[in-house]
Design goal:
2 helices, about 30% strand, alpha+beta
Length: about 90
């Protein structure tokens, strides 16, 4: 009996098996990453309220229809996204 197996079919079978096993390993890691321990989260988060924008020696000109409405100059500009004012 003659066995008709070529190198290409062996390689394709090995490649499929490798992809399958890699997928199973990656899927088994997903449930391990879904833990919400509040103490660990608090350790990484900061209670300090930080500005989203911070600039020094800031100057801007606001115009409407080619007419300058106001000029804003400040030595320090801080913009906060939250509703709370620090």
């Amino acid at each position: 009996m003659v066995c008709n197996i070529n190198k290409r079919s062996i390689f394709q079978g090995t490649q499929r098996c490798f992809r399958f096993l890699t997928g199973i390993c990656l899927l088994s890691l997903f449930p391990a990453g879904c833990v919400n321990d509040i103490e660990k989260i608090k350790a990484f988060s900061s209670s300090e309220i930080l500005p989203t924008v911070h600039a020094e020696n800031f100057e801007t000109i606001y115009s409407d229809s080619g007419i300058i409405r106001f000029v804003l100059k400040t030595p320090e500009l801080k913009r906060f996204e939250s509703d709370e004012t620090p």
